[in-house]
Amino acid sequence: MNLILLGPPGSGKGTQAIRLQEADGLVQLSTGEMLRAAVASGSETGRLVGSIMEAGELVPDDIIVSMIDRRIDEPDCAGGFILDGFPRTLAQAEALDEMLARKARRLDAVIEIAVDDGALVERIAGRFSCAVCGAGYHRRFQPAAVEGVCDRCGATRFLQRPDDNEETVRTRLVAYHAQTEPLLPYYRARGILRSVDGMAGIDAVSTEIRAALGVSAA
Ligand code: AMP
Q1: Which residues, including other chains, have CB under 8 Å from residue 161's CB and lie 6 or more apart?
Q2: How far apart are CA 154 and CA 189, in angstroms?
């Protein structure tokens, strides 16, 4: 099964993609993660995109499209993938259609995770992750069991993304409404769009997504 998770920053796409990955063996393809890895490695792409990401703006379509085009060909994607953070523009959506047709693959479903703008700033400004294993947390909604210690690996160092601050979140929301929201009617017209209520708790959203996809509970 090949899916897109669509929703504004902070809607929980990454959290839900990881759950689907663990339960169903689909591979999470997060363009944000790929770009952060490129920035950390100091590659040519990383140098090009770092300041764009810190400003909360969108990276040029050609960089993103070629990144995904190569990644989908890797063997771990053969059993299905979850696109998390891609496509974010109509040009990216059209490029995805073209590349899937070329690879004789298809898109099975697009899940919209709908969240009110008002909730997103608090959700994003409270996020942090383990500096060692990358496990994601939230100060209020998903704290570590023992404060200051990673549940998954026991590390005690944590990181906050440089673009997870209030000012940048507002720019990211503007980009979402202007450039990404037009994808909803694009996929609705194809009959593959399903919407879930992203204001519900993490487990309830997972259940709704599984119901929308017609897969049994994890
Ligand atoms: P995310 O981790 O999905 O919130 O993405 C973080 C940042 O990476 C975004 O604010 C953009 O600057 C950039 N980015 C990620 N995915 C895309 C995409 N599909 N198109 C353009 N820019 C992207």
Answers
A1: 36, 127, 129
A2: 47
Atom of ligand 1 nearest to the CA of 175: 10
pLDDT tens, 83-136? Answer: 999 999 999 999 999 999 999 999 999 999 999 988 899 899 999 999 999 999
The total number of residues shown for the chain amounts to 218
Three-state DSSP class for residue 111? strand
Residue where the block lists tokens 């998770």: 5
Tell me how far CA of residue 109 lies from CA of 119, 148, 160, 192, in angstroms.
Answer: 26, 38, 31, 5
53 lines ligand 1 (CB under 6 A): yes
> CA 136, CA 158: separation in Å to the nearest integer?
10
Angle at 24 between CA 23 and CA 30, to 5 degrees: 90
Q: Token pair for residue 173? A: 């929301």
Distance of alpha carbon 198 from alpha carbon 10, whole angstroms: 10
13 in catalytic set: yes
Q: How many CB atoms lie within 10 A of CB 20?
A: 25
Q: pTM of this prediction?
A: 0.93
Amino acid at residue number 216: S
**Cβ atoms of residues 67 and 34 within 8 Å:** yes
